[in-house]
Amino acid sequence: MAHGDGDLDPLWQDLDWAIGQTLIMGWDGTEITPQIRSLIEEHHLGSILLTAKNLKSAEQTASLVQELQTIAHQAGHPHPLLIALDQENGGVNSLFDEDYICQFPSAMGIAAAGSTELAYNVAKATATEISAVGVNLILGPVLDVLTNARHQPLGVRAIGDDPQEASQYGIATLNGYKDAGVATCGKHFPSYGNLDFLGSSLDMPIITQTLEELSLSALVPFRSAIATGRLDAMFIGGVGIANAGMNVMHACLSEQVVDDLLRNDLGFSGVAISECLEMESLIQEYGVKGGTVMAVEAGNDLVLLCRAHDVQLEAISGLKLGIEDGIISKERIHTSVKRVLKMKSSCTSWQKALNPPGLSLLSKTHPTHLNLSRKAYDHSIAVVRDKEGLLPLSQSLLQEEELLLLTPLVKPLPASAATKSMMEKAASKIGAITQHEKWVHQERGAIMSGEGVFRELGRSIARARHGKLLHTSYTANGLRPVHENLIHRASSIILVTADANRNLYQSGFTKHIAMMCQMLRAMGQKKSLVVVAVSSPYDFAMDKSIGTYICTFDFTETAMASLVRALYGDFVPQGSMPGTMRKAKKVTKSRQQWLVENYNHERDSHALDELLSALARSSTPTPAAPTRFNCSIPASRNPTMWYGNSSTQTLYGFVATYYTKGLGSIGAIFVDPAKRNVSIGRSLHRRAVRTLLQRPGIQKIQLGTTFPAAFLGVPVDELKTWFTNLGWDTQFPRRLTNMVIEDLQSWAAPEGLAQSIQRALICFDLIQGLENAESVLNLVATHATADVVELYKFALTGRACGVVRAKTTADDILATVIVCPPGSSLANYVPALQSTTSSEIIGGIIAPIVPSTAQSTLLLQGLALMGLRQNKSHKATRSVLSYVLEDFHEPLAAMGFDIQQTFDEITNSPDTVTTHYPLPLPSPKPLHIC
C-alpha cells in the first residue's frame, strides 16, 4: 500500500473524486439508467454492486458490465470499476444462466461432501465464470459459524457450527476464488451465526455473546482467513452487539468493531465494506447522511447503498458535509482510497475490464464445470439415517406400488430455471402498476415457482421408478382430507421439508405423518416414510422417530436431480452432517489406534506432496515440498513418520521430529482434512513422543522448532487444547512471531533511527563462513536453544547466507541475526520464505539473538535495518523477519513490519509428557539419519 498522500495520483486531491472511490452502489433494472450513469460520470462512483434484479443471462451480464466500464473509462476514471456480486451457490446466486453458468451446492453442502479439495475446485469454477462476464469482486466466502445452528436465517449459506471446519472450508473457498483472479470479501463480520431477533422491523438483530465467546468460536474463521494474506475485503454486518464489553447499535457504524476489533485485534489491513445503509432502523436512528459519516469514521473504506437513488445522493452530500465540518479528515478519505486502489490493482485493469472473455470462455469451461457440479451434488447428499433399509427405493418399493411425494409451498431459490420463467411471465403481465402491486405479484410468482421445482422433482422420480407417483403440496393449514386419502393409498411416502425449524408447520406436519405411518404399520399395512430436508439439515437430525432421513442442503433443480439418483441407487450417498454432528458420529472411532510407519523419501515423497497440497487448499500455507523435512546436518536428526494406506501409497497423516543435543522437537503434525477426527493425529503424536523419549540424554521436549523448521510452535488460538489433552503443560508458552514488510522496494527507514544507532556507538558487520563465527555461536548457545545454534551453523556454512553482528567500538558482540537472500538454501527450511507467486521475491531476516539489556530495542531495530538493506539490495520485493519474541512487536511495528503469523513454542520436561504414556517404551530401532 502506498504511504503518504504523495503516492496518490493528484486526481484524488479532488475530494469529489476521492469520495466516489469510497462508495459502492447499485440500482434496479437490467439496463443502464440515467441515475447510475450520472453516479459514475458526475459523482465518480468507483464500485458497483450487481444483484439478480440486474442480470438476465451471462451474455446480457457481460454486455452490461462492459458498458459500465466503458462509461467509467470515457468519464476519465484512472482505474476500472469494482464490479461486485453475490455468487455463494446453493440458494444465493445473483447470476443464473443454465446454458453457461453452473449451479453448485451451498457452502454447507460442500462441507457435507467432506472434501476441501472439492471446495477449492468449486470456488475456482464459480469465480472463473463470473470473472468471464466482467465481475472482479465476489462477496465471499461466508465465514460465519452457526453457533446456534437450528434457528438462524443464515442456514446452509454457512459452512457449519464448528469453527475449525468453517476455517478449513472457508480458506479452501478463498483460495479457489483468488486463484481464479477475483478479489474476495469475507462475510459477515463479526458474525451472523447466533443472532437474537427482537420482533420489530426497526429492531436490529443482536449478538449477545461476549467478546471472549466470539473469539473462541465465531471469530476463528475470520482470523484464519486474515492470516492467509489472501482476503482482500471484509463485509461488516448490520447487527447490534450487546454484552459487557461492547454496546453497539450497528456494527458497521462502530469504531469498536471496525478499527479496534477487526483492524487492531485481528490485524486486517484490507478493505472494509459496510452493510447497506438503506436499513430502515439506521435511517430512523441516524439518517442517511449521519449514518454514512459514521460508517467512514468507524473505519469502513466502501460504504454500500444498494439501490435508492435519492438515498445515494443524500449519502454523497453527507460525506461532503462531514469533511466540511471537520468530522472526517482528508487523510481519512485518502487512507480508504489507497486501500480500494490496492484491491483494484490486484483484480482488474483496463485491458481486462473492457474486454471480458464472455461466452467464448464460458462455452469452453461449461462441460467441465457441469461434471464438477454433478460430482459436487452427488457427494453432498447425506443419508443421516436409514434404520429400515429403505434405500434405494428400487429395492424396497415394488413397481406396482404407489409412491406419494409431499412437498411444502416455499419461496424459490434465485438459482432456478422455474424462478426465472415465473418472474419473466409475471413481469410481462404486470405492466404499469404500482410498486406495491408489483411486489405482491412477484411474491405470488415466487411461491408458484418454488412449487414448480418440486413438480419437476415429482416428474423425475416418476421417470426413475417407471411407476405411479402421487404428488401434492402441504401448507400451514396442516393435514387435510386429501393428504389422508393419498397416505392410505401409498405404500411409501417421500416427505420434503425446507427449514422446518423456522417454519414450524412443516415440523408438526411431518411428525403427524410419521405417527400415522407408524399406526398403519402396526395394523399390518406397508407404509414406509422417507423424510428429505432440502435446506437446513437440522430439521430432524436429532429426531430418531424419523427412521430414514436424507439431506440435500438446497432445492435447486441440480440438487433435486442428485436426490433422485441417490433415492434410486445410481450412487451410494457419502455426504455427512457438517460440523459437530459429523464429529459426534465419529466419536466411536476416536480411540482407534493407527499403525505409524517410518517415512521413506524415495517411496513416499509424491504421496507427501499430495497431502501437503490438500492442506494448502484447506488452511494457512504449509510447507509445499517434502524435501523441507530432510536435513543434511548430522547434528540434527529427523525421523519422519507417516500414517497411510501402504497398498495405495496414500498418506493420511505425517509427523516430523528432530533431535539436537538433548532437545527433542515435534516440528509438524499434518492430517488430511478428509481424515480428521478419527485419531490419526493422536497416533502420530504418540509415535513421535515415544521416538523422542528413546533418545539418550533427552532433557527437553518441545512443540515447534526453529531448524529444520515446519512451524515455530503451535499456531496461536489453534490446537492448544488438543495438546493439553495429550498431556502437555501449555500454560507458559514462549510466543514467537513472523513479521513482514510487504512492499520492500518502497519501504524507507524511520526518520532518525540511523542517527540513534550511531549515537549509541553501535556498529554492524556481516560475516560468512565458520572461520570468524566462534564468538557468534557462543552468544547464540548462551541465549537460545540447540536448534537455533544448528540454524546459525547451517546459515554460516551456506554460500549465500550471512550473519549480521552488532558490536561495540571495542569489537564486543552485542547481538546477531541471520540474513537470508532470496532463493538461498536456508529458505527451503523456513516456510515463511517460500514464494506463492512467480512475482514474489522474499528475503529473510532470521532468528535475532538480542540479550536483555537497556539497548535491546535499539539493537533489534538496528539488526532489522541492516537485514532490510541487504534484502533490498538483492531485489527482494518482500522481507520476512522470523523468530521474533512477543516483547519486540511494538518497536518492529514502528519500523513498518506487520504480523504475519504467531506461534506458541511449548517446552516440557520429559517427565511431564511421559506421564501420558505410562506403558514401557519399545526398544530403539535404527533410524535413517539424513
From TrEMBL:
Residues 31-342 form the Glycoside hydrolase family 3 N-terminal domain. SUPFAM superfamilies: (Trans)glycosidases (SSF51445), Acyl-CoA N-acyltransferases (Nat) (SSF55729). Belongs to the glycosyl hydrolase 3 family. The keyword Glycosyltransferase does not apply. InterPro entries: Acyl_CoA_acyltransferase, GH, Glyco_hydro_3_C_sf, Glyco_hydro_3_N, Glyco_hydro_3_N_sf, NagZ_Beta-hexosaminidase. This is Glycoside hydrolase family 3 N-terminal domain-containing protein. It comes from the Eukaryota. Keywords: Glycoprotein, Glycosidase, Hydrolase.
